[in-house]
Structures are given as C-alpha cells and as structure tokens.
Amino acid sequence: MFEKVEKIRPEIEGVEESLAAARMRLMTEIRGEERPVRARPVRRTWFLAAGAAGALAAATAGVLIVGGMTAPKPPVVAHPAPTPAQTAPSSPAPTPTASAVPETVQGVFSAASASAIHGGFSPQSGQYLRVTWTSDRVLLGDDSTISEPGSGLSYPMATHAWVVRSSGTTYIPADLTGDWYRTGDGPVAVTSAYGQDADADARLQQRLDLWSTAGGDGRFESGGGSLPEGDGTTYSDYLTSLPADADGVLSQFSEGQGSTTDYHHAAMVGWRLITLLGCNAGSGDVRAAMLQALGRLPGSSIVDSHGSLRTISFDSSFGSEPGESGDVQRHQTITVDVSNGRVTGSSDSTNPGGSIVPDGVADVRTDYVVDVVDGLPG
What we know:
Layout: H1 2-34, H2 42-64, E1 65-66, E2 69-70, H3 105-118, E3 128-141, E4 146-147, E5 160-173, E6 179-184, E7 189-194, H4 198-216, E8 219-222, H5 235-241, H6 246-255, H7 262-278, H8 284-295, E9 300-306, E10 309-317, E11 329-337, E12 342-349, E13 364-373
Antiparallel strand pairs: 1-2, 3-4, 3-5, 3-13, 5-6, 5-7, 6-8, 9-10, 10-11, 11-12, 12-13
Helix pairs in contact: 1-2, 3-8, 6-8, 7-8
C-alpha cells in the first residue's frame, strides 16, 4: 500500500506546484484590482477566479481519491474569489432645457402678421367678409342726462350707470370701396345697472327702444362709413391707401397728427390702428403692416394668453404728457388670433376707478366672429 502511495506522489507534487502557481496568479489579480490604476473588465476577473477554483478542485480530487483509498482530509483553506468592482450606474446627464423666453408684444404681432398674409378669410369677387359682433357698452346718467363716457358725462359725474348689450353683423365686400351692409341682431338689453333709479331707468328704456328700431332693418354705408374718431375719412379710404409695411403705416398716420407731442401722437396712432384692425377688413399685407406698427408703439403689453389668442393692452392718454394735470387715461385692448391674424375682441376704457361703475368695467367691449359668405342675407 505504501508503494502505491509513493508511485502517485510525483503526481500529487505536480498538482501542488500547479496549485501554488494558480494561487500566485490569483493573488496578483487581487492586488491588481486593489490598485486604482486601471479598471479591469469584470468578465476577465471572473474567468481567472474560475480557473483558480478549477485547479484547486482538481488538486483536492487527486488527494481524496487514490486507488479507492481514502486519504486524510487536508484542512480546507478558503481563497475567496475577488468580488468584481461594483460601479454605480451613471446617471444620464440632464438634457439642457432652454429657459422659457417671455413673449413680447412685437413677437406676437409678428406671428399674427405672418398669419394675416396667408391665413385666408379673403373674400373673392361677389363674396363678403361677415363679421358678427357682440358689444357691451357703458351708459352714464344723472338726473337729466344719459350719455356715453366723455360725451356729456364723465365717470365722477354719474349718479346712475348701465351696461347695455347689442349685437349685429357687418358684411364687407371684396371691393372695400363698395357698400358695407350693417344690421342689428335682436333688441338691446341691459346686463348690469348701478345706482338704479325708476325715473332714470325709464329714460334709458326709451333710448334703447329707439336704438333697437334704428339698427334692426340694416343699412348700407359706402366704404364702411367714417371712423368714430377722425375727420370723416372712411374705413375703405384708410384700408386701400395704407402701405404694406409698418414704417409706411406709421409715417402716413403721422402726417395727419399736426403739432401734437410725441406722447399724444403715439396715443392717437394706437387708437386709429385698433379701430381699423377691429373691423377685420383689408388685405393680408396691409393688416400685417398695421399689426407690426401697433407692436412698435410704447405703452403696449401682453395681458392674457389662451391657446392661439393673445390679448394686448395699449395704455395712453388724452393729455400731451404722462401724468398731465386733468389727464384722462385710456386703456385699450385688442385680442388677436395669431393663427390667422384676425381680431377676435377689443375693449376701450376711460374708467378711472372709484366711481359708481366698478373698477375694470370697460366703456365698451366687443367680441367678433369672422367668416366668408357668398352673399348678403335674403
């Protein structure tokens, strides 16, 4: 039996040498992992560990089984395989996000201008641009008078006030110099009242009855009639003579302003532009130029944004300088659909606040719906 053991000793010794070499390589790998010189691939580390474990298993098997004779079990020394370095998954770098750039009045009007040129709603020969409108208007009263603000009574003078609603439709021909057809839609109604008085209410109702009768049958106005503020120049006179660029529009309006100050001049130009834009008529090029011109005036700001609609306010004054004694402030707004360049609403207010009419109620507020039709109503 001893002789058999002696015969296999060289094999066992050879295994011990192989095992020692494997251990040496393994320790070299461990020390290499501990030095933060260069990260080794994880797969290679496990391959070497597996090789060392295989050599250790082969040597152990040779010692335990020799010709069916069980040898004493050698002490087992654990040589743990190195744990692969665990690298925390790198978080992706945050994608740079452009900071929100606030809209500007000029930017809004530029977008609306581009849409006005290509946005449709241009009637062809024989067609009409149909503008359906609904308007809420303030009327002021005292013991003897009923008037619109600034036309006989001012807000501080009023002891009664009403908001009345009217509606109607304007048909604008493709040829702007032709006859515009205007008609009222339904009776005028009171929607709000302040400082109610039976006698004043009766006088107001008489006025509203006359108003409803006058507008119910419809009327034709050559060239759209004259602007509410001005020298009798008609809508079509302006819309067919204005140049198709903002500088030209501002220059043409400047010629008729006389010797007013720059402050008052800008206010008057703004009023005129808002009035013309509110009728929604004119070629796309001219409307685009008017929108851009309005955006260049001082006193404009964005006050509301909803979908493609932007509401721009234009603050001005009847006086020659800001803060002038007795100056009447004027606050106008215009709501533009930037997708087609059309005006969907406008307002005008001289309400100084602190009067019988609540703050924020405009002198007049009008909403518009625009489309193209093939003819006048039957």
